[in-house]
Amino acid sequence: MAAYQIIDHIYDVVVVGAGGAGLRATLGMAATGLDTACITKVFPTRSHTVAAQGGVGAALGNMAEDSWQWHMYDTVKGSDWLGDQDAIEYMCREAIPAVYELEHFGVPFSRTPEGKIYQRPFGGHMRNYGEAPVQRACAAADRTGHAILHTLYQQCLKHKAKFFIEYFATDLLMDADGSCRGVLAWDLAEGTLHRFLAHETVLATGGYGRAYFSCTSAHTCTGDGNGMVLRAGLPVQDHEFVQFHPTGIYGSGCLITEGARGEGGYLTNSKGERFMERYAPTAKDLASRDVVSRAMTVEIREGRGVGPGADHIHLHLEHLGADVLHQRLPGITETAKIFAGVDATREPCPVLPTVHYNMGGIPTNYRGEVLRPTRDDPDAVCPGLMAIGECASVSVHGANRLGTNSLLDIVVFGRAAAIRASELVKPGTKHKPLPELVTQAALDRFDALRHAKGSAPTAAIRDSMQRTMQNDAAVFRTSASLKEGCGKMAGVAASMADIGIHDRSMIWNSDLIEALELDNLMGCALTTIHGAEARHESRGAHAHEDYPDRDDGNWMKHTLAWVDDKRRVKLDYRPVHTYTLTDEVEYIAPKARVY
C-alpha cells in the first residue's frame, strides 16, 4: 500500500456512473439532503445515454387512448414472461409521473400542435392488450437521450451534487460481514488513487455491449459495475439475454432508431419484398426487436440479403419525404450520410442486426437494492449496495426489452434508488473504521495489472473475445456453437494471465484503462455464454435452434452466475416474481408470444 498514496473521501452516498440512471439517482439523493458524490470515467454528458434516440415509453395518451396496464402487458409479453411483474407494474405505473417530472425539469420534448408531448409508435407497444400499435414513445426528435442527459446534469448542478469526473472506479470495498462500504477509484488526470466511503454505493455503470465485435454501444460500455460485483463474490443475473437491434448501420454498427419504423419506415429484402408481414402479420415492421432481428437474419441466411455479399437488409425512409425526416429524424438522417454514405431522403439505408442492450445484469429489487440470493431467501439484499439502469436486472426487461423502456428504466429506478437511500441513510451518519485488508485486495489487483509483463496486448485478447462472442453467442444459437464458444472463451480468459501493459504511468494511462475494462468485459462474456449454453429453450433474445420453443415448466427462472478467481463460472437459478405489486392489476399469465 505504501507505493500508492490513497486519498480518502467520506460521503452519505456514492453513485458510480453519470448516465441517465446515475444522474437521476444523484439528483434525487442530493435533493433530499444526502451528501452525494458521483464518480464517472467520462464527462457526464458524454455518457452513453446521450446516444438514445427514439423516445421514453409512457402511457400519457396524448395521441390516442392508452393506459399503464396496456403498457405493462406489452412489457410482460416483450420480456417473454421472464420479467418480474411487481417491478414491471412499478415501472409502467410510475412512467407517467416520471415523464411529466422530466418535462418540468426542462427536457425539450417535441410537441403536438396543441402543445402536448409528441408520442410516436414503437415496436411491441400496442393498445388494448396487443390489438394494434399505439403511440407511446415520448420523443425529443430522435435525440431523446441527449435531451434527458443534459437536463439531468443541469439539475444535479443546481442541487450542488459533487462530481468526480474522469475517475475510474476499480473495485468495490466489501467488508468481512458482506456489506459494501464504498469504492476504490483512480483519478486519471492526477494519477492518484481515491477511497470513497459511503453508506450506500450505487452502481449505474451501463451495459457491456463491447463484449461483442459489432454493437451500437460506445467504447466505454465495458460492464464495469458487473465486473466489480463478480469480483466481490456476488452473482449477475440473466446475462445470456443480449438484445440485437434490428437496424444497426451495416459496417459500422451505429444505431438507426426504431422510431424510424415508428414514423413509417419499413424493411425490404433483395426482391424488394416487405418481408416482415410473413413473420409478424399484425405488428409487421413494429414487432418486438428480437422478432425483427431474427426475421432479418433468416432472410439473409436464405439468400435474400441485399448488397454484393447478400449480407444485409434495406431500411426505406425515402418515401416519408425530406421535411418529415429533417423534422422528426434529423440525427439518423445525418448518421446515415456519415456512416453509410447514403442520402436517406432519396435511397434506402443498409442495416444489419447489431448488439444493442443487455437485459441481464446485477440482480436488484424494484427499490434498486442489490440482491445476494440464498436458497432460503432468493430476494435477500446485500447491505450498502444498489444498482440501476442497464447494469442492473430488476428485472423489468426479462428475456427481451421493449424499445423506449430503457430510458424509462433509468429515470424510474434512478428515482426509486434515491427514495430508498433517503429511507435507509440519515444525513451525516458516522462511518465505522474500514479494515485495511479491504483496500489491499483492490490495490493488489490494480498493481498486478499495471505491472503485467506478458506478451499478449490488451487489444489482441479483446479482439479474440469479441469475435468468439459474435460467432458463437449471437442472434441464433445452437448447442454445438455454444459449447464450442464456452471452450474458446475459457482459452481467451486464460490468456489474461499473459496480458502485457507497456505504459506504467499513473496519469491518463489508456493502456491500463483498457486492460481494466477488458477484465470487466471478460466476466460479462463468460457468464453470458455459459448461461446461454445451459438454457435449453428459446425465450426472447435467446433463440436456441436445438430447443426452438419456450419451456415455462423448466426454464421460467432467472439464471444466476458467479465467476471465481480462476475465471470459472458457477450457475444457479432463482424464481421469477409471478405476482404484482398492488391489486390494481392482475398477474398476466404466460401465453404464446405472437405479433
Kindly describe this structure.
This protein is α/β, with parallel strands linked by helices. Helix content is 34%, strand content 21%. It has 16 helices and 26 strands. The strands form 8 sheets. Strands 7-3-2-11-19-18 form a 6-stranded mixed sheet. A 4-stranded mixed sheet has the order 1-10-9-8. Strands 13-16-15-14 form a 4-stranded antiparallel sheet. Strand 5 and strand 6 form a beta hairpin. Helix 1 packs parallel to helix 11. The radius of gyration is 23 Å and the shape is globular.
Notable characteristics:
four-stranded mixed β-sheet; single chain; alpha/beta; 34% helix; 595 residues; six-stranded mixed β-sheet
In short:
With 595 residues, the protein is an alpha/beta fold. 34% of the residues lie in helices and 21% in strands. The mean pLDDT is 96.
